[in-house]
């Protein structure tokens, strides 16, 4: 197992914190989130309207300008989710970050990290019934090329609609 972690991207006024399981081997090699050539993450953020243009993996540090932060549940491992062990996860650090930055939405990029964080064997895609304080929890199909058979952008569009609703309420309150 590698002693590696991508840096958390959690500065600024975030509306959305996206949490993956762990850095992929390619992401670990390049030091960039979602760097795999078949990963749909960056194109999806643009397609659903959460970024005004398509970012590249090397641009991950720009996401807070758009109100988006990034982290992983397993910070000392890189590689395939199938090789992750429950003890590789650090849910207490994620919870501490949520309590500190209080993002309106926490979205898991894939079910694996969500199951571990929520301590359950089963989760469904979409908005979860539980949250953390005022933070809504959302579970999304993984953008990883390795999870292509489960891909469904519909849930990502639902997330984007929720983000726009929150932004509109925030604007109305100002």
For the largest sheet, list the strands in their spatial order. 2-1-3-5-4
Average pLDDT, rounded to a whole number, is: 89
Tell me about the biggest sheet?
Answer: 5 strands, mixed
Straight-line distance between termini = 48 Å
Could you say which overall geometry the principal axes of the C-alpha atoms support?
A: globular
By DSSP (H or I, 4+ residues per run), the number of helices equals 5
Characterization of the model:
With 174 residues, the protein is α/β, with parallel strands linked by helices. Helix content is 30%, strand content 16%. The chain is built from 5 helices and 5 strands, in the order βααβαβαββα. It has a 5-stranded mixed sheet with strand order 2-1-3-5-4. The N and C termini lie far apart (48 Å).
Layout: helices, strands, pairs:
Elements lengths: L15 E5 L4 H6 L10 H7 L20 E5 L18 H11 L3 E5 L1 H8 L7 E7 L2 E6 L13 H20 L1
Parallel strand pairs: 1-2, 1-3, 3-5
Antiparallel strand pairs: 4-5
Entry summary:
With 174 residues, the chain is an alpha/beta fold. It contains five helices and five strands.
Keywords for this entry:
single chain; alpha/beta; 5 strands
